[in-house]
Design goal:
This protein has 15 helices and 7 strands. The chain has 287 residues and is α/β, with parallel strands linked by helices. It has 2 domains: 132 residues, Glutathione S-transferase Yfyf (Class Pi), Chain A, domain 2 (Up-down Bundle), CATH 1.20.1050; 112 residues, Rossmann fold, CATH 3.40.50. Strands 2-1-3-4 form a 4-stranded parallel sheet.
Length: 287
């Protein structure tokens, strides 16, 4: 309703400090349910799929695509549940940390690490879709908790694309005669994991990929939603990212792994960007 009823967006800006100039991401009615994945490892090549909050509630189809792609590659994805003290889904705690709520962030991260640690100790890879959340397991969380379990979990973290390249996969993909613009998330650039993204896209025969040379898209989580920071956010996007996308024809795919990056592209260029996993899912040769 906030973005549909006249005047409600401006009222919400007064109450929440979220800019009325930008729509909020819609919650999905068919959000990703815990029952959609096994909760314990099965098969010869189990992989722990980190179901982040953004994918769970806003873009669940990315997770469903990940299930299909991982299965097609010979993996059996699962997502363990936390202990029975709380039914609240697992979260990395990054959103708490970004606003200075260190105590809440530590508690949230500890809960996740306690759940993942036994599987990390067993040598099971941990993968995820949202770069900022997944890579928090390698960076912020070990520093925040300073425990052996957190370090062990960090060692087993791989991006989705890294997993597909480091393991012997059996992905059969249809050729695609098309062009694609690729935008890298800041965390992907900082951790040097853009090359695996490019290499995985190279598995699609005929796809011509151009990486947009940009810095931050300008969203930076909630930064782009703030009433006081919205204009700065758009200025950052207008430096290179949005002009490059507007200059592409309508048939060109726009690929961005970051949730906030895709929101910025949609709001600023009226184009739907997709996660790599969605394109892989689209091109799977299904039996």
């Amino acid at each position: 309703l906030r973005d549909k009823l006249p005047g409600l967006a401006w009222l919400s800006q007064i109450l929440t400090a979220f800019s009325a100039k930008r729509p909020l991401p819609p919650w999905q009615r068919r959000w990703f349910q815990p029952t959609e994945l096994a909760v314990t490892p099965i098969g010869e090549r189990p992989v722990l799929l980190f179901v982040d909050t953004f994918s769970r509630y806003f873009e669940p189809e990315n997770l469903r695509s990940a299930q299909r792609v991982l299965s097609a590659a010979g993996f059996t994805p699962f997502a363990p549940l936390p202990d029975q003290r709380s039914t609240k889904p697992l979260c990395c705690g990054r959103t708490h940390l970004s606003v200075g709520n260190v105590v809440r962030a530590r508690d949230t991260a500890q809960r996740l690490v306690e759940t993942y640690a036994p599987y990390a100790a067993a040598g099971i890879p941990i993968v995820g879709l949202e770069p900022s959340c997944l890579l928090a397991l390698k960076d912020e969380i070990p520093a925040l908790l300073n425990t052996q379990d957190a370090q062990q979990v960090a060692k087993m973290v791989l991006t989705f694309e890294e997993l597909l390249l480091t393991e012997k996969t059996a992905l059969c993909l249809k050729p695609l005669q098309a062009k694609a613009l690729l935008h890298g998330h800041c965390h992907q650039k900082a951790f040097g994991v853009m090359r695996p993204v490019q290499e995985v896209l190279g598995m699609i025969e005929g796809l011509e990929v151009e990486t947009i040379e940009t810095s931050c898209c300008g969203m930076a989580g909630a930064f782009g939603y703030g009433a006081e920071t919205f204009d700065i956010s758009m200025q950052m996007a207008e430096a290179r990212l949005l002009p490059a996308i507007r200059g592409a024809d309508a048939q060109t795919y726009v690929i961005a792994d970051g949730t906030s990056c895709r929101s910025q592209i949609k709001d600023g260029a009226a184009r739907e960007a997709v996660h790599v996993v969605r394109l892989l899912d689209q091109q799977l040769i299904k039996d």
